[in-house]
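Lab notebook, bench 4. The sequencing result for the construct came back, and we need a structural model before the next group meeting so we can plan mutations. Quick request posted to the team channel:

Model the 3D structure of this chain.
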Amino acid sequence: MLNLCYHSSSEAGTDEAGRGCLAGPVTASAIILPENFSNTILNDSKQLSENKRALLKPILEKESVSFSVCHVFQDEIDEINILNASFLAMHRAIAKLEPAPDFIIVDGNRFKPYPNIEHECIVKGDGKYMSIAAASVLAKTYRDDYMTKIHEEFPMYNWKKNKGYPTREHREAIKKYGLTKYHRKSFRQLPEQLTLDI
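Done. Here's the predicted structure in token form:
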């Protein structure tokens, strides 16, 4: 059972999706849920089917006090590294919340402090707190929608299915067709990357 306890009345949960992908953005969401919010389906997005995530997305958007979603794209990831890009995506999402939260809860064990707002890192928080679970669902659904869209441009990588994650099929396509503008050049795309002419 997910927890709906607050450190404050305006607490935001934040989470990201796509950190381990070879292509596409890392996407973060931040969300403030109302104090009376409840939902029996909501859970860590990784525990939910695609259909359940799609079902939850409009509910969370409609019932939240405020939510936002932010992509940080591959060029910026390559420039500042994936961990910093994840923090940046969360910071940008938090910055768009209206009203601004007065406390932030973050999935995981690391976070770069956000200016003037206290935070707490919660390991496996997306399976414990509703607002983090809600942020994980929005980050995942928005990112999946984006990957499905760019799939049309480069269907040979099958991003509509693998969403840019390093599946065998995705790696084989990189081996065969090389890298696209959507691939993260700073990532080790193939185990034998040193022999791959990129």
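The first strand starts at residue 11 and ends at 17.
Will bring this to the meeting.
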